[in-house]
Amino acid sequence: MRTASFLSVVLGLLLALGGAAHAGRSKGWAGTVAKIGADGRVYITAGTSSGLRPGVQLIVRREGEPILDPKSHRVIGRELGRTVAVLALESHLGAELSVCAVERGGRGLKIGDPVSLDARAAASDEGDADDEPVAEPPRKKPAPPPAPKKEDAKARPAAPHPSETTPRNGRCPEGKFVNAATAGHCCWPEQIWSDHGKGCIGTPRCPPGFQRSGLECVPRAPSPSEESE
Fold first, then answer.
1. pLDDT at 213
2. CATH hierarchy code of domain 28-125
3. Residues 128 and 120: beta-carbon distance below 8 Å
């Protein structure tokens, strides 16, 4: 009986220490971008040993300018750098490797960029009673394209809706394209597909005749000279 009680106490201590180590690792974790896949997914130097859980949000932020102490002129830190991307950890691929989906941003992302735990996710992980994910801010709906005037309706065919991402008859809407980074979906130039966000992300490079509106390109309104024709 004494042996069984002793073993239960030791087991309880080991579980408590393991939980504390898990929280400490995830709270202070930082790593780097190891690879950017052809499908747009991002591989980072964080695996099962990091204590991070699938679904947690991570940020990729460039280092800012150094800040000097006014008296000693020593470097005491750096400015908050520009946020390049927000990632969502999909799964671990080993003790020191995981794959992430790009939730927001991603343009200009490169190997070696520093990755850190999102402050909101760290606060949730520190004392969470439930595992509800951080709510993503609502996305602004792209402005609808301007309706053609009655006199132009016959001369100009209606442009395809810019938000279409599924190829029709094997073809994308005008100006969009499909490649490895779009995972079979129609996106604007310089965009990639996000499985997590279920849409094309990144700042689009709009083709001639279109103008940017959020994450979409919409047909450009005709100029007064074009209307007079």
1. 85
2. 2.40.10.170
3. no
